[in-house]
Amino acid sequence: MRVLAAMSGGVDSAVAAARMVDAGHDVTGVHLALSSNPQSFRSGARGCCTLEDSRDARRAADVMGIPFYIWDLAERFRADVVEDFVAEYAAGRTPNPCLRCNEKIKFSAVLERALALGFDAVCTGHYARILDGPQGRELHRAVDPEKDQSYVLGVLTSEQLAHAIFPLGDTVKTDIRDEAERRGLAVARKPDSHDICFIADGDTAGFLRDQLGEAPGEVVDTSGEVIGEHDGTFGFTIGQRKGLRIGRPAPDGKPRYVLDISPVDRRVTVGSREELAVGEVVGSAPRWCGPAPVGVVECAAQFRAHGEPVPARAELVDDVLTVWFDVAQEGVAPGQAIVLYDGDRVIGSATIDRAHSPMIMNSSRAI
């Protein structure tokens, strides 16, 4: 089988490619240049896509003895991931750029090009498993729960899963580093990248301020009383507690949290932790890793990459997904992805448009 191995320059993708070589496949390595002006070196463990990363990927490919290429996808990445990220925050939503990158870049642009060039599959270093099920290939959680990345892969369709390979899904991370050392790969102890890859210094608010400019507004409580000011709604997300810049404490002395973000009138509404409770979400743009669910289905729902799955019920009607939580949840924000599971199997995902809580619904308000 002809396999295109996406090599980021890190240890995971290098070992994934090496395993494909060991399995006897015809492997070609490719590094995705996603920045039009890459830095020479990483800043600690943050960021990726630097010149150093591309060189690390090339050196790993040389050790394996496989062909290696660099594909320039910087323009596509900026349009589909970076600009989408900025636009979502400008609209008061909380996006996950890793999901968007998997959906639009790694398993759309890259996979489409790979298939057009005659490759059979794309291999990556993601921690997830693809298993054969009664209705085709299924996406499952990785064996290592600490590294599981099935959440950010919940945007993949069954057609894309048919041409995807995740060789690391049955291995824990410490074993991967040991294996890389045995293979003579220089990236064996290279730090993992963290946070958002195109914000190397980790200052998301600063990045958004540079992109959108300051837009001062008011911080108000649920009665509408102004209790603080801010430089831009993009600096907030639902459930946030720190950095609210509130001039005085709540009457009961308890912490306050962001309940609502309104970029139109530049208002951020804060309230008690109890007011964060969400019992129902409505999502759009659903994507299914297999057959779409029919009727109301019992499932587990996850709305953060490293969050805990919670018992839920879900129903799809006319491409609109409604999910009800068995126990009210906190910090659910529009723009987040909600990923549904049946045990370890990923059913699919949708983008949260609205999140309702009993307290807010009783006053005819929705987050």
From TrEMBL:
It is an enzyme of class 2 (transferase). Keywords: ATP-binding, Cytoplasm, Disulfide bond, Nucleotide-binding, RNA-binding, Transferase, tRNA processing, tRNA-binding. The record marks H126, Q336 as: Interaction with tRNA. It is found in: Cytoplasm. PANTHER family: MITOCHONDRIAL TRNA-SPECIFIC 2-THIOURIDYLASE 1, TRNA 5-METHYLAMINOMETHYL-2-THIOURIDYLATE -METHYLTRANSFERASE. The gene is mnmA. Catalyzes the 2-thiolation of uridine at the wobble position (U34) of tRNA, leading to the formation of s(2)U34. HAMAP family: tRNA_thiouridyl_MnmA. InterPro entries: MnmA-like, MnmA-like_C, MnmA-like_central, MnmA-like_central_sf, Rossmann-like_a/b/a_fold. It comes from the Bacteria. The lineage of its organism: Bacteria, Bacillati, Actinomycetota, Actinomycetes, Jiangellales. Its EC number is 2.8.1.13. The active site is at C101, C197. Residues 283-352 form the tRNA-specific 2-thiouridylase MnmA-like C-terminal domain. This is tRNA-specific 2-thiouridylase MnmA. Belongs to the MnmA/TRMU family. It catalyses: S-sulfanyl-L-cysteinyl-[protein] + uridine(34) in tRNA + AH2 + ATP = 2-thiouridine(34) in tRNA + L-cysteinyl-[protein] + A + AMP + diphosphate + H(+). It comes from Phytoactinopolyspora halotolerans. Its main location: cytoplasm. GO terms for cellular component: cytoplasm.
